[in-house]
Amino acid sequence: MAETAELILNGQSITLPVIEGTEHEKAFDIGKLRDQTGYVTLDSGYKNTGATKSAITFLDGEEGILRYRGYPIEQLAENSSFLEVGYLLIYGHLPTQAELTDFSSQITKHTLIHEDMRKIFDGFPSSTHPMAILSSLTCALTGFYPESINPNQTADENNLQIVRLMAKLSTIAAWTYKNSVGHPLNYPRNDLDYCANLLYMMFSFPTEKYEVNPVVVTAMNKLLILHADHEQNCSTSTVRLVGSANASLYGSVSAGINALWGPLHGGANQEVIEMLEEILKSGGDTSKFIARAKDKNDQFRLMGFGHRVYKNFDPRAKIIKKAADEVLHALGLQDSPLLKIAQELEQAALTDEYFIERKLYPNVDFYSGIIYKALGIPTEMFTVMFALGRLPGWIAQWKEMRENKEPIGRPRQIYTGELERNYVPMAERK
Ligand code: MLT
């Protein structure tokens, strides 16, 4: 017999169907609750609310499991390229060689952006945060491809928008960086793969021959794969919610970029480096900061430790820690003072009872910040790199939401304001 739940409300019994996922996680289906009872559920921050059924990413926070389309993140990070993982997320299966070659060459073909778009960069004041430029230019793509706002596009037309976005966001991201440092913009190079081309567009100068460092390419590839999806996190939920109003792919992803920009979400790796720099500036004594982190009355918090959904460890951090060690050695940065501080904090978190008890282990943001810093990427660009990694996840979730014909997202509320009262003319107000 199918499992059900019984809700007793003022003596009346209401039966709620139980929905079970393929990994046996369960939910009460409350879809008819308001019609049946007049009540809604209240769950600030949606910590106990499944907003959708999704077949893209499985995450078990207790066991530290993350899988894209069933494949463990460890295997994908070890064996795949970012575009292969992108294809897997978006289309649901690992591509054959022919499918991957076709997908990669389509993306390569679309990396150029319209010259008029280039001019938009000049309109931003130099104080603009790169995430503001990234989200604005992503939304601006609707102006260059106006057909993209039509919600009734064919699958082929939708695929073209997907490929364009996958291709152009890396160029926009690299140009955002070049623009922020006042360097000439580099046009994409079709002879390089996705990660090598991204590094080339960001770090080469017209005055010098640019050598792509394979260790750096491998680390970048892993970082992008590890960030590619994370089920219904804040930015992904934003993309789905905006898209549920039939907003375009570019408009929905632009909204997701803004959500990711928040310091509580994608901005965390930037805060890790800022914290390490603060510790270094104040003399480098980590024990002082560890004591401060334990002090309830002190505002100081260790950034990059613990995670909202991973209760024991972050599986992405395990993989990226190894990549961080490799990159720092390859670039001869293993003795950098900033890294020494990071290692001391990591050691404290892994051995000190206070951190162990509270599950404050280093998470993916802790190590990704260290790698980006070692690559010479300015801290303000860290979240842009996260957005590039998250892009195939956002696209896959938007596409799934559309294909499943999900209804427009429209949460309810519990009103806590004034009861009805009469308008007071200005002369009578106190
Ligand atoms: C993410 O990868 O989106 C972050 O770890 C945040 C989250 O999942 O809530």
Keywords summarizing the entry:
Rubrerythrin, domain 2, binds D-malate, 3-stranded antiparallel beta sheet, 6 strands, globular, 430 residues, mainly alpha, 18 helices, Citrate Synthase, domain 1
What does this molecule look like?
The protein is mainly alpha-helical and 430 residues long. The chain has a 3-stranded antiparallel sheet. Strands 4-5-6 form a 3-stranded antiparallel sheet. Strand 1 and strand 2 form a beta hairpin. It is globular, with a radius of gyration of 24 Å. The N and C termini lie far apart (65 Å). The model has no long low-confidence stretch (mean pLDDT 94). The protein binds D-malate (MLT). The site of D-malate (MLT) has 5 residues, from loops.
